Amino acid sequence: MHFSPLIDQLMDSLRCLPGVGPKTAQRMALHLLERDRVGAERLAQAMLKAVELVGHCEKCRNLSESPICRLCESSHRDESLLCVVEMPADVLAIEQTGSYRGHYFVLMGHLSPIEGIGPEQLGIAQLLSRVRNSAVEEIIIATNPTVEGEATAHYIVEQMRALPVKVSRIAHGVPLGGELEYVDGGTLVHALSGRRSLR
Amino acid sequence: MHFSPLIDQLMDSLRCLPGVGPKTAQRMALHLLERDRVGAERLAQAMLKAVELVGHCEKCRNLSESPICRLCESSHRDESLLCVVEMPADVLAIEQTGSYRGHYFVLMGHLSPIEGIGPEQLGIAQLLSRVRNSAVEEIIIATNPTVEGEATAHYIVEQMRALPVKVSRIAHGVPLGGELEYVDGGTLVHALSGRRSLR
Ligand SMILES: [Zn+2]
Ligand SMILES: [Zn+2]
């Protein structure tokens, strides 16, 4: 549409948001300009600040604006447990259940040779050195129960073979082919408590 | 959730977008930070620019970044037709049908005593003086076929009583109680061509 260059540009830019098509982008742009310019300005500033300052935690690789994230810095977490997940959203999903008090390691993806994502991109060496040099006694692998997530879990188990730690996989209460992020809290609690040792 | 202050703030700010709840805001924030920081920055800049520079056209009251909007400035439009709509989205919907070549007047709302929206807020005096001092021969009232839209249409017809112009209302091909913005193009074309004279 040819509305006005700046409004067209705003509608166009809004489409970088997941799930936002042309019709939704139009509704969002007009809503902001007609009814919530204060909200739009606050959102823009929050975006710029986050993009500039949010990086990754040096310890767990999760998104964080400080070198070491809040979870890693907390003294109230169980140092003997380390849960390995694919993405930051998985940390949020598990934290929201309130039933896990250990630490995390965020791969920021899964093995995918086609996309050029190997052990290096997932920080596997960092994970191994962390396990070697810390009080971790059990690794809970909570990658997604998808083909790629299972392959990634399998690879990590292989790499851990020589290390003196327990390695477990969350129970498949999570439906096969599903994404951890979209699973309800109850199922996640069940999957965590029903985890089985992999050796 | 307590993720990290800047990410929490971003998730929170995203909820000013219509239809965005906490779960969607979370997915959007993580998507932007993990996968599309360039898009996030462009969106933030587009938002700031639009909020700063987009005002209202002096002639038709539609959203515009120039004092007179593109539609009002165009020499290819029919000066004898003036379509009165509630919102900018209605102009977009009618323009997208490609079947109307006249001008517009955007009320930016409808009469609503409860919300304190009267003739002054809708620019009715401006509309009347525009009709008096221009080549307009027919006013097409295309407010929504809702209770408030009908009341607004009725009020405008009353105000036009003394003026030597034809006044018409778009046909009710548009379902009663519906919003013009969400009606398909075919129905809108029908409603425009089937408009009936109100006197
Ligand atoms: Zn961390
Ligand atoms: Zn205009």
Can you walk through the features of this model?
Chains A, B: Keywords: DNA damage, DNA recombination, DNA repair, Metal-binding, Zinc, Zinc-finger. Chains A, B: A zinc finger (C4-type) spans 57-72. Chains A, B: One of its GO terms (molecular function) is DNA binding. 2 copies of one chain form a homodimer. The first copy, chain A, is an alpha/beta fold and 199 residues long. Chain A has a domain at 76-171 and 185-192: Dna Topoisomerase Vi A Subunit, Chain: A, domain 2, CATH 3.40.1360. Chain A is built from 8 helices and 7 strands; from the N terminus they run H-H-H-E-E-H-E-H-E-H-E-H-E-H-E. The model of chain A has no long low-confidence stretch (mean pLDDT 90). At the A-B interface, helix 1, helix 2, helix 3, strand 2 and helix 5 of A face helix 1, helix 2, helix 3, strand 2 and helix 5 of B. The complex binds zinc ion (2 copies). The site of one zinc ion has 9 residues of chain B, from helix 4.
Concise description?
The structure is a homodimer of 199-residue chains. The first copy, chain A, has 199 residues and is an alpha/beta fold.
